[in-house]
Amino acid sequence: MTTVALIGAPASGKSTVGNLLARRLGVEFIDVDAVIERREGRQIREIFVTDGEPAFRALEHDVTLELLSSPGVISLGGGAPMTPGIAEALADMDTVWLQVDLASAVNRVGLDSSRPLLHGEVEATLAQLIEKRTPVYRAAARHTVNTSGREPSEVVAEILGMLAWVR
């Protein structure tokens, strides 16, 4: 069994698709943000507020690299691939970029206040994040799947068709 890493903007479907993909493959699903919250005993947004984004990114770096060495489906935080060490680790594995258009992402986020970088003007902030991160996601991904307007089961079926070791 190998590792499948899911990357993408907030609300691209990493957690939803990741859970379903892991079940279909019969492997563990690991959400990096959930692991960080469990280990730290506080939510990501609390870490951002209390410790600042640089401290969170350092923690995210260490936890992500540790988890990427585990077999299964790993959902990374949206900003994780922006960290060079993480981007380098992704180059050697089945990394799937879950693309999402701005309108779909805004619709999915709704009023979710748990996302620390999306407070305030959600649409403008998401637009900036997507624009800034797209080249990094493109470079890190071995596979790309658009999730906009699609059911998670459709996305999973497409990913399964892309993974050579599944056949």
Main β-sheet description: 5 strands, parallel
Derived from helix and strand composition plus strand pairing, the structural class reads alpha/beta
List the uncertain runs. Answer: none
User: CATH homologous superfamily - what is it?
Assistant: P-loop containing nucleotide triphosphate hydrolases
Give the count of structural domains: 1
Average pLDDT score? 89
The string of secondary-structure elements, in order, is: EHEHHHEHEHHEH
Name given to the CATH architecture: 3-Layer(aba) Sandwich
Number of helices: 8
Helix content estimate: 40-55%
What is the gyration radius calculated from CA atoms?
15 Å
Q: Could you give the distance between the termini? A: 13 Å
**Large-scale geometry:** globular
CATH topology value: Rossmann fold
CATH C-level class is Alpha Beta
Verbal overview:
The protein has 167 residues and is an alpha/beta fold. It has one domain (3-162): P-loop containing nucleotide triphosphate hydrolases (Rossmann fold, 3-Layer(aba) Sandwich). Helices cover 54% and strands 13% of the residues. It has a 5-stranded parallel beta sheet, sandwiched between helices. The two termini are 13 Å apart.
Brief write-up:
The protein is α/β, with parallel strands linked by helices and 167 residues long. The protein has helices at residues 14-25, 32-40, 44-51, 53-68, 84-90, 102-109, 122-140, 152-162; strands at residues 3-7, 29-31, 72-75, 94-99, 143-146. The chain has one domain (3-162): Rossmann fold (3-Layer(aba) Sandwich).
